[in-house]
Sequence to fold (319 residues):
Amino acid sequence: MDQRQWVDNLFREHAKPLFRYLRTFRLPEEDTYDLVQEAYIRLMSAGPSKIRKPKVWLFTVGRNLAINVMKREKSRWTDAGAVDLLEDESRGALADLMDKEDREQLWAAFSALSDGDREMMGLYLEHEFSYRQIAEVLGRTEISVRVGMHRCRNRLKKQLRPAGGGVAAANAEGV
Amino acid sequence: MTRNQDVEKGLQQLLKDRRIPVDEDRLEAMRESLLRQVPHRTPRRLPVFFRQYGYSLSFGTALVLVALIVWQIIPLGPGNPPSSPGLMEIAADEGRVDRALVLLNGFASVASQGETMVDWEYYNRSMVGDYGDENILETFYGSI
Fold:
């Protein structure tokens, strides 16, 4: 596979998830597109021989770039671009799984987690990274990620319990 | 599947369904732009030997270069005096300067006796004959 094909495949496969992940850093939308582009430019410059796990590599580089931007332009970093929004309409598998009220409860519990915990759970659940891959992206050890995920689950459980009733609370109680 | 897994599955679906608008046209334009840049961004591929032994080779090359430089500066070895060709040349020049000074003393002594130029020539040529280097006299005349 030549370099062009390699870049093309990786862009089609990972650009959108990368954008969604970087968007959760709540940087302006324009900056987020720039970060995606910069991550891919660096990918091209490094070349396939130096990158064994392109998805992990892209997310790691994208995350570091986002953190650099946030440090450099703190004043521009606002919550105005917050994107943790739920779809108004339930759909597909989710609609079968729980009703709107349960979804809102679950989302509220998730939103109550710290930024770092949300990021970690997002990588695990939304982007389906393994613990080892999450550790690489976040620059932590795998054990630390395992412990962190365990704590996240406990916090979620704690958040869901007081509400009482609902599928989410019932499910969490069964842990 | 445990109930905890059900919660995670629900949360996973929530996250995947999160409303994060993505401008597909913009991503497509970005993809095309990146693909146009590929020829300029492609890293130079070294031969396999260099890729495999790149660092060792760099270190070895640096070592050889340092050895050459040291050898040029201090050409020590069995039977070699601790001096460079440059130093030997300077020493030879000093020898010629010494001989020239002897000749100058000769001119001075002749001049003090009020002899003519022809006599100087004769006198100095005989001196040069003693030293066996006529060029020194010519160089001296050329310089004044």
